[in-house]
């Protein structure tokens, strides 16, 4: 399933948060979205998954016109791991994950054996087996994020959007979440804040600055010290990590 | 993996969360509701043996004759049970179920554990309407007596809640904070008007009626008032039982709900208007009965969890049982005096609420 975003612009009142952004995620690619705080990453993602109404532009998931289609039709194809994961009322872990089945269910339809199996499989995938009956609000940040990921897995999406899924997590859980997502073998668009992780996991990167796409390309091609300096306003040197062979970035304090 | 999970785990959710545990809870609650409705008619100014009450009810409902026919059809207790107490007990059952239902829906719709059926200014709007009808009256408009009070209480309730909804959605998106604040403002305004009327009224009997009304009572229940309440509540229960997925999504918040395919804006508005109408009907027929719609949802959430496919049926039954017995207490605790039921619901409800605040494991929606 491909994602095509065409000339998307979002404004809040007078302020143009996202300006004429076009991007494309082809089949089963892992595409990263990077940029400094306030560059419009989250707003762009939210307008793709229908929480914010863009001023103009189109979004297509293969043939599906996301902005014109009903939320249920979109939710059957598109899963979202967002940043809005605090609850005002508590649920158990299993109940939380079961809600991933919502878009596939009619109003009166109850959960069947197949749903139960999908929920169990999702629990297994995020390594939370045996914790199905715990209360969600009692979990740690990393566990909560994994529950949300499991909910999206139970949703069986054909495309997934992640908005800084590794925020505030220990490195172990950052890697764990990215590994699970990477193995899914579906199209992924993820806003990430760690550049080295983005370089390591993403097939392609879009760099945003002040609401526009400042650059795009393969990580090794575009993550240069010039671009990082310009977009993130930090001095750095890039190098090949002698241990992993991956791209390394050394931030320099003097500036 | 285990390091992060090895932290001392908070109390595990009870077995009632499981499928069979839940079925058992519903079964027990259902039987208790039926037993309560049958038993509650035995209590009152005149105590009637429970077995006889059951036989009289069974005879009237199914035609079944157990024991002396004479005693079942024309005995002295028959009129008391069938004409006076049973409609009242049924009224308590429906009002209890309805208030709990509306409270649960409101708590989900505004995502706020403090919400109750009266949150949209319904209480003060209804009070204002009733005060107006009782103390000033609408004789010239041909609406007299109790019907007039009920009608104006309903009108006041619905009027106030529409005002609150309009106020909360004026100037952009309706948020739950704006809703709660708008409810407070309209409450204050309506209360001020109602107090103004009471202050200048010289009608002592009328003022007592107003006071009694604002504390709620099922004393005026009768067979001819029952159908409106029964049909309203039954339809509401059927409708909202089918909405458990939307209600669950509401607890996740607007954004997560959209990603699960549910756009909450329209649902929230419709739920609130429906809840306001249902509560208006209830308030019009039995005044303001506080605490039930606030506390029973929390209590039952502590038992079966927040998932509405369990929470709704369990809390509706629990609310019905609670109301039946608080009404029994209201009409028997002081001999020869009919207490307003609102006093009893608060006297029982407040300690239950305190217990839940003290007890660990249920955090009223907050973090545990």
How many beta-strand segments of chain B? 0
* Physical arrangement of strands within the biggest beta sheet of chain A: 6-7-8-3-9-10
Low-confidence stretches of chain A: none
Radius of gyration of chain A equals: 19 Å
Number of domains of chain A: 1
Overall pLDDT level of chain A: 91
User: Which structural class fits the helix and strand makeup of chain B?
Assistant: mainly alpha
CATH topology of chain A: Rossmann fold
The share of residues in extended strands of chain B comes to under 5%
Oligomer: heterodimer
Strand fraction band of chain A? 25-35%
Determine the mean pLDDT of chain B.
Answer: 84
| Helix and strand run of chain A | EEEHEEHEHHHEHEHEEHHEE
Q: Give the number of helices of chain B.
A: 16
Instruction: Give the number of DSSP strands of chain A.
Output: 12
By CATH, the architecture of chain A is named: 3-Layer(aba) Sandwich
* Spatial separation of the terminal alpha carbons of chain A: 44 Å
CATH top level assignment of chain A: Alpha Beta
Shape of chain A: globular
Biggest interface, chains and residue tallies: A-B, 44 and 40 residues
Spans of chain B with pLDDT under 50 lasting ≥5 residues?
1-13
Family (chain B): Belongs to the binding-protein-dependent transport system permease family. FecCD subfamily.
Transmembrane segments (chain B): 20-43, 89-106, 118-138, 150-168, 180-202, 223-244, 270-299, 311-333, 339-358
Protein name (chain B): Iron ABC transporter permease
Pfam families (chain B): FecCD
């Amino acid at each position: 399933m491909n994602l095509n975003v065409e000339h998307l612009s979002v404004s809040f009142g007078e302020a143009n948060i996202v300006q004429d952004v076009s991007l494309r995620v082809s089949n089963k690619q892992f595409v990263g979205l990077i940029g400094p705080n306030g560059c419009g990453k989250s707003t762009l993602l939210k307008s793709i998954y229908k929480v914010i109404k863009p001023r103009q532009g189109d979004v297509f998931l293969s043939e599906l016109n996301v902005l014109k289609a009903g939320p249920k039709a979109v939710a059957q194809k598109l899963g979202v791991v967002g940043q809005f994961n605090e609850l005002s009322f508590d649920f158990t872990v299993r109940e939380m994950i079961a809600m991933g089945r919502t878009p596939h269910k009619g109003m009166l339809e109850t959960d069947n054996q197949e749903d139960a199996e999908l929920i169990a499989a999702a629990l297994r995938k995020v390594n939370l087996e045996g914790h199905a009956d715990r209360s969600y609000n009692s979990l740690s940040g990393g566990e909560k994020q994994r529950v949300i990921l499991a909910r999206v897995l139970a949703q069986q999406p054909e495309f997934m959007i992640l908005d800084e899924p590794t925020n505030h997590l220990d490195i172990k859980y950052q890697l764990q979440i990215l590994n699970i997502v990477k193995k899914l073998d579906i199209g992924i668009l993820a806003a990430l804040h760690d550049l080295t992780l983005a370089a390591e996991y993403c097939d392609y990167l879009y760099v945003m600055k002040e609401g526009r796409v400042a650059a795009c390309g393969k990580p090794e091609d575009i993550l240069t010290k010039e671009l990082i300096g310009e977009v993130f306003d930090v001095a750095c040197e890039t190098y090949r990590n002698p241990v992993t062979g991956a791209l390394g970035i050394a931030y320099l304090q003097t500036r | 993996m285990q390091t992060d999970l090895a932290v001392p785990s908070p109390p595990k959710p009870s077995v009632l969360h499981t499928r069979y545990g839940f079925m058992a809870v519903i079964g027990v609650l259902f039987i208790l509701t039926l037993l309560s409705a049958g038993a509650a008619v035995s209590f009152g100014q005149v105590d009637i043996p429970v077995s006889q009450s059951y036989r009289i009810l069974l005879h009237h409902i199914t035609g079944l004759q157990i024991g002396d026919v004479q005693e079942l059809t024309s005995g002295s207790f028959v009129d008391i049970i069938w004409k006076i107490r049973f409609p009242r007990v049924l009224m308590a059952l429906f009002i209890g179920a309805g208030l709990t239902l509306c409270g649960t829906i409101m708590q989900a719709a505004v995502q706020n554990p403090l919400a109750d059926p009266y949150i949209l200014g319904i209480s003060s709007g209804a009070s204002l309407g009733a005060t107006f009808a009782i103390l000033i009256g609408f004789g010239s408009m041909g609406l007299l007596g109790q019907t007039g009070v009920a009608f104006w209480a309903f009108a006041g309730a619905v009027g106030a809640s529409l005002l609150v909804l309009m106020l909360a959605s004026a100037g952009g998106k309706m948020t739950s904070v704006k809703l709660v604040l708008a409810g407070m403002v309209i409450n204050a305004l309506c209360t001020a008007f109602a107090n103004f009327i009471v202050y200048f009224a010289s009608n002592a009997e009328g003022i007592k009626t107003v006071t009694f009304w604002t504390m709620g009572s099922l004393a005026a229940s009768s067979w001819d008032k029952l159908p409106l309440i029964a049909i309203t509540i039954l339809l509401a229960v059927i409708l909202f039982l089918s909405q458990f997925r939307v209600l669950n999504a509401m607890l996740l918040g607007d954004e997560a709900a959209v990603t699960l395919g549910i756009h909450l804006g329209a649902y929230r508005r419709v739920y609130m208007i429906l809840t306001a109408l249902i509560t208006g009907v209830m308030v019009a027929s039995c005044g303001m009965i506080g605490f039930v719609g606030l506390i029973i949802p929390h209590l039952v959430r502590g038992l079966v969890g927040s998932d509405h496919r369990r929470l709704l049926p369990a809390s509706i039954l629990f609310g019905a049982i609670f109301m039946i017995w608080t009404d029994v207490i209201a009409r028997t605790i002081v001999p020869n005096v009919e207490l307003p039921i609102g006093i009893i619901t608060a006297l029982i409800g407040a300690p239950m609420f305190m217990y839940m605040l003290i007890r660990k494991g249920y955090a009223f929606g907050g973090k545990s």
